[in-house]
Amino acid sequence: MKHIFVCIANRPPMAGESCGAAGSALLMESLQLALMKHGLTESTRLNGCTCLGPCEQGINMVVYPDGTNYARVTPEDAEEIVKSHLLEGIPVGRLVHVESGV
Fold it and tell me: What digits encode the pLDDT tens for the residues 51-67?
């Protein structure tokens, strides 16, 4: 079973960017449609969650149990993520969030 969490947090405008304001509801809708199209609704759960960080790189999402963090995801990326990551087991490299060393 795969589990997708999409950040749906909405921060006040003066607090900076947020995934909710960037359109995460539309991303969730696009992901749900792609999951239905490919018959994955029984084997994949899709949930909204609060902050996955980093907000300035939203929309952020994570796929478990793989632990793959995605950043700057758009609704247009949903089909590619479902086909490549969920069906073929290959994360979408251009969207994978890479932690910067601190």
Answer: 998 888 889 999 999 99
- How many residues are given for the chain? 102
pLDDT higher than 70, residue 100: no
- Cβ-proximal residues to 64 (8 Å cutoff; 6+ apart), any chain: 2, 3, 4, 5
Find, among 64, 63, 12, the residue nearest to 73 by Cα: 63
| 44, β-bridge pairs | 2
Q: Where are the beta strands (DSSP E) in the chain?
A: 2-7, 44-49, 61-64, 68-70
Centre a 10 Å sphere on the Cβ of residue 82 and count the other Cβ atoms it contains.
Answer: 24
pTM above 0.90? yes
Pairing relationship of beta strands 2-7 and 44-49 according to DSSP bridges: parallel
